[in-house]
Amino acid sequence: MIDTNVNRRHGNNVKWAVTKDDDQLLPMTVADMDIATPQFIREAIQRVLDKKVLGYTMPSTGFYDAIIHWQKQHHDVSLKRDQLIILPSIAVGLSFVIRHLTQVDDGIIVMSPYYPPYKQLVVDNHRQFVEFPLVQREGQYVIDFKRLDQVMANSQVKAIIVCNPHNPGGCVWTTTELQRIQDLASEHDVLVLADEIHDDVTFSDNLPVSMMSDMMGEGVSSQTVLLKSATKAFNLAGLKCAFLAVKDPQLLATLKQAAAAEAIEEVNTLGLVATRTAYEKGAEWLKEVNAYLEENRNLAYEYLREEVPMIRPMYPEGTYLMWLDFMAYGLTDNELDEKLRNLGHICLNPGIEYGKTGSGFMRLNFAVDRSVLKDALHRLKHFDQSVRKK
Ligand SMILES: Cc1ncc(COP(=O)(O)O)c(C=O)c1O
User: Ligand 1 atom 9: the closest Cα is on which residue?
Assistant: First the structure.
């Protein structure tokens, strides 16, 4: 059922655009998959196309029901239709929430390293970007809660973005960690913006818990906005459909009014169909894809540890992203990027773009055909041998 036979070299694909200048370069970058969007979704889209008209369409009851059912069944999140706001994307949704639930000059905490657009969404909306470094312990990131408490205690700070599973670190925050974030947020009156776009990509050794899970208790609802879409797990990023969920009546009223004012819910018709179909029919397909990705993860992690020990991978508990520590080579970020391209013929996402804590790191996307992953790993070994020879 999984189809990895995709050629994305042509067209304006973001990931593969680098090969226009150098067709020997293998990009392992942008967080979408070189795995075909499932056939049952493409067929559902085709049925819409077969009706020959792509005019205005309303989100169906089935669309909302599919989200509600999926979130309850897979993430233990109980939602009602009127607690949902449809969005074109998570990025648009974050900007929207920041603009309507915080004020100019408010501080927004972002754990570093971070998904790079977070910074722009905060700064370009004239909020203060409060970079909060994650701490490495035994090769994994942990949250320094004492420090978080101090940072939240600053009266300027009004919100925190919590990315779970974490891009780029691949960490799945534990229930205890999520609860502690919520406790501090409650104590300091800080809004929690939970970006859970990666939470359907799950591996057998780590299941992410949602910030809005019923298990987190009633209290979290009053200060949490959940942002989510089917795009990462089902490879639908180009279709522009996401949603946010908010339970607190006051926050909900503010966001509903703002959504009407901005017509933010007017999303792509095909995105509505794809999202509904993913959640209605996608569970089995996703299980298979996740098992494939888990094998890819294990293969890449073990290969690097055994064959290229100077590259130290962080173990991805979730996501199809692997965060690689290249510090042992003693290269600057520019040198590292250049040598990976010129000696390894591989293109990774430079860690420095993910914040101060990202210096010396690179991010690798392993959602590709296994043969491509093996090729990428061999290129990393070749890079390693070439750099050490010099
Ligand atoms: C953590 C995280 N949030 C948001 C996004 C972007 O989502 P969207 O395309 O819906 O804006 C990404 C994409 O890579 C991501 O990794």
Answer: 89
Cα of 199 to ligand 1 centre, how many Å? Answer: 12
30 within 8 A of 350, measured Cβ to Cβ: no
Which listed CATH number (3.30.470.20, 3.40.640.10, 3.40.50.300, 3.40.190.10) goes with 54-280? 3.40.640.10
Q: Is 18 a residue whose pLDDT tops 90?
A: no
Domain parsing of the chain, residue ranges: 16-39+284-389, 54-280
Q: Which residue has the tokens 């007017």?
A: 266
What is the CATH code of the structural domain delimited by 16-39+284-389? 3.90.1150.10
CA distance between the termini of the chain:
45
Report the DSSP pairing between strands 224-228 and 26-27: unpaired
> Is 0.90 surpassed by the pTM of this model?
yes
pLDDT at 11 over 80: no
Q: How many residues does the chain have?
A: 390
pLDDT of residue 286: 98
Centroid of ligand 1 to alpha carbon of 238 (angstroms):
12
For residue 10, pLDDT beyond 80: no
Q: Mean pLDDT throughout 219-238?
A: 95
pLDDT score of 237 more than 90: yes
Question: What is the whole-number distance in angstroms between the Cα of residue 226 and the centre of ligand 1?
Answer: 13
User: Which of these, 134, 173, 130, 171, lies nearest to 152 by C-alpha position?
Assistant: 130
Of residues 131, 214, 216, 227, the one with CA closest to residue 173:
216
pLDDT confidence tier of residue 323, bands split at 50, 70 and 90: very high
* 97 class by beta-carbon count within 10 Å (0-12 exposed, 13-18 middle, 19+ buried): buried
The predicted pLDDT at position 110 comes to 98
The whole-number average pLDDT for the span 243-268 is 97
Largest CA distance in the chain: 63
Q: Which residues have any ligand 1 atom within 6 Å of their CB?
A: 31, 89-91, 115, 163, 167, 195, 197, 229, 231, 237, 242
